[in-house]
UniProtKB/TrEMBL annotation, chains A, B:
Domain of life: Bacteria
SMART domains for this protein: HTH_MARR
Name of this chain's protein: DNA-binding transcriptional regulator, MarR family
Organism field: Marinomonas fungiae
GO term, biological process aspect, one: response to stress
Positions of the HTH marR-type domain: 18-151
Keywords assigned: DNA-binding
Amino acid sequence: MQDQPKKSDQDIDFGVLDEFLGYRLRRAQMNFFAKFGEVCEDLGISPGLFAVLAIVERNPGLTQTAVAQALGNDRSAMVAAVDKLESKNLLERRPAVNDRRSYALFLTAEGGRFFDNAVKRVSCYENEMAKCLDGDEEKQWLLNALERLANKSL
Amino acid sequence: MQDQPKKSDQDIDFGVLDEFLGYRLRRAQMNFFAKFGEVCEDLGISPGLFAVLAIVERNPGLTQTAVAQALGNDRSAMVAAVDKLESKNLLERRPAVNDRRSYALFLTAEGGRFFDNAVKRVSCYENEMAKCLDGDEEKQWLLNALERLANKSL
DNA sequence: CTAAATTGTTATAGCTTTCACCAAACTTAC
DNA sequence: GTAAGTTTGGTGAAAGCTATAACAATTTAG
């Protein structure tokens, strides 16, 4: 009754966890986050900062809150993010033309080059990760399923 | 040149983000995390604590580090988690039989009942979320794809 | 026995979320 | 038009969770 059978890592019963989408999503996302860190280590940006650059690059002039809403983050999270990107000379806060409360965000020239380079790296490792999927067909299916789950309400 | 076209929330160009598995995984997982919080609000446990209970329930006597490794967390994260679960009388630290450094973790009787109840709730909302998938077939495919992504190495 | 590895722990830092706050903008009523 | 209240944008402080590094006690390897 006291001799536990010395379970190895593979030997563990995950029970209901194995059937829960929430848990599996977390594990998959943790792996992606870790791989992102490896690939972009020297660039000094996190997935969150990368996402901010991506939104601002395609939608120049957006306010901080607009970017936050687009990414599903809180407004307050944007302060430190934009501060950091601005200190790296990648992003620029300009006063908004018709609203003195808000800033309009723009990529700097350096930010544009930086982002292009980062996209290359991220695309590269994304493609590598997607190799465990069955071709572009399954990847598109997966992207679609994930979008449905992200927007599902109870 | 200065009149930005007043983009609404739906009007934003996500660019490369839309094709990145990492981003879509994050969005989907954020939604699951939020829904978990709604459903289990009065229970006072997070997805992380739920996962600890699930592992200990199916693998009684595991050490803290073994649970951490199973869940992909750091050992140090387990301290606060077990502290919290122990203060709720759901989990118990017993001295390990053959290693005075480590504890063996067990669910208390109350912890067992609590977990059963929590599983009912989480299963319920998991099923609700899965309704945006095409039957059990697509769910199983998705679980499988997520497992592949979680274990893929570069 | 000595050196290396392991367990639980603490401290520290980073990131994210929540709350309250102030200034600016908007809405409504005069 | 003005003046009141309300909403919104950015910010800062506090709380939460996670990851990293270091540490003492203990176990294991050589």
